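Quick one:
INPUT:
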């Protein structure tokens, strides 16, 4: 059994594409995912599944949401291990003191960004690592 975190993009923003978390939890339970937990109104859901194919899981959730709510929602799936690795490999933290005071803003990407899209963001200090983009926005 694998523990996953799903990140639903663009729901509950500005009163549009609203999904109550209790209803979202029910969608996941109807898909036979286990130990389903939602996090505030974020669209983040923690659950367990026997399925090891993240793309298949994502497609299954996207279809169930479309069938239920009649709008498309991109779903990004990460494992617990992937999130722990991301947390421990922050390229902008150089020591333990910085870890305590660093406020991260992490955005997950479904695909590795194109060179063209990275060029659009070149004015920011950035590091591309697999399918995540961490940007240092020190003010």
């Amino acid at each position: 059994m694998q523990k996953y975190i799903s990140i639903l993009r663009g729901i509950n923003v500005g009163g549009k594409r609203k999904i109550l978390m209790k209803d979202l939890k029910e969608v996941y339970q109807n898909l036979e995912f286990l130990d389903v937990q939602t996090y505030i109104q974020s669209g983040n859901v923690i659950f367990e599944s026997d399925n090891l194919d993240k793309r298949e899981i994502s497609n299954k959730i996207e279809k169930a949401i479309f069938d239920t709510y009649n709008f498309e929602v991109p779903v990004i799936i990460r494992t617990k291990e992937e999130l722990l690795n991301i947390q421990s490999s922050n390229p902008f933290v150089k020591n333990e003191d910085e870890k305590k005071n660093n406020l991260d803003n992490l955005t997950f990407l479904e695909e590795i960004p194109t060179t063209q899209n990275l060029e659009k963001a070149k004015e920011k200090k950035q590091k591309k690592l697999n399918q995540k983009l961490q940007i240092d926005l020190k003010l």
